[in-house]
Amino acid sequence: MTALTVNGRPVRFDIDPDTPLLHALREAANLTGTKYGCGTGDCHACTVIVDGEALRSCLVTIAEAEGRYVTTIEGLSRDRSHPVQQALVAEAAIQCGFCTPGIAMAAAALLAKNADPSEAEIKAALPHLCRCGVYPRLVRAVQRAGRVARRAETISAAPAPGISADDAARAVPAMDPDG
């Protein structure tokens, strides 16, 4: 069994140690916020934070993650209040959203080390492929998140956290078998 800490909780995976961390997170731990993009490490959609470093989870096996601390988008903040998440929304740097979790994780890892990165440092830390082309807004969002992290700015409100599990259960309409 492979043991690691995921989002602050100890986890044991009873699967092949050569399994990519991405698949262990998505399929065994049901943490589907980490996205499968290319499977070769080129798109960076699967980025998570491992011991403070932004890593592509498709390139890390669970054996390599043994004993390490992994943070996924679900562990960044439960209510989307992390400065990176707030700034991505405030700067309209989210379009389709597929690459967003990986970008948020890479940005959070960067800001944890340097809360005032240059544009060049931001671009180097975010080599993600974004089909929507929001790159200028991503730079602005990371700069803004840095200002929030340094307490030089506030964002007026966290984005709406969505529908609660209880509300979602009530919102599902009954199926009419006769159509």
From TrEMBL:
Keyword Ribosomal protein attributed: no
This protein's UniProt keywords: 2Fe-2S, Iron, Iron-sulfur, Metal-binding, Oxidoreductase
InterPro entries associated with the record: 2Fe-2S-bd (IPR002888), 2Fe-2S-bd_dom_sf (IPR036884), 2Fe-2S_ferredoxin-like_sf (IPR036010), 2Fe-2S_ferredoxin-type (IPR001041), Beta-grasp_dom_sf (IPR012675), Diverse_Oxidoreductases (IPR051452)
Ranges of residues in domain 2Fe-2S ferredoxin-type: 1-76
GO molecular-function terms, A-Z: 2 iron, 2 sulfur cluster binding; metal ion binding; oxidoreductase activity
Gene3D superfamilies assigned to the protein according to its UniProt record, in alphabetical order: 3.10.20.30, [2Fe-2S]-binding domain (1.10.150.120)
Pfam families: Fer2, Fer2_2
Protein name per Swiss-Prot or TrEMBL: (2Fe-2S)-binding protein
Organism from which the protein derives: Tsuneonella litorea
Higher taxonomy: Bacteria, Pseudomonadati, Pseudomonadota, Alphaproteobacteria, Sphingomonadales
